[in-house]
Design brief:
Layout: H1 19-32, E1 44-45, E2 48-50, E3 56-58
Antiparallel strand pairs: 1-2, 2-3
Length: 60
């Protein structure tokens, strides 16, 4: 039986790191351990989620 952790938090990175760079590095770390990540990753700017079209949606 496997153990499951739910992650609820934020990671602060330098401003030049793209969504894809962060996601790739995060998943590379997870997979290097033989682990699995299921869920989503959302970018936040100025207290709002950044949507795929570039618009912003306030945090809920």
């Amino acid at each position: 039986m496997r153990k499951v952790f739910e992650i609820n938090g934020c990671v602060e990175v330098p401003p030049d790191v793209t969504d894809d760079e962060f996601t790739d590095a995060f998943l590379e770390f997870i997979e290097s351990k033989g682990w699995f990540f299921g869920g989503g990753i959302k970018e936040i700017q100025d207290g709002c989620y950044v949507m795929p079209d570039g618009s912003q949606k306030p945090l809920e």
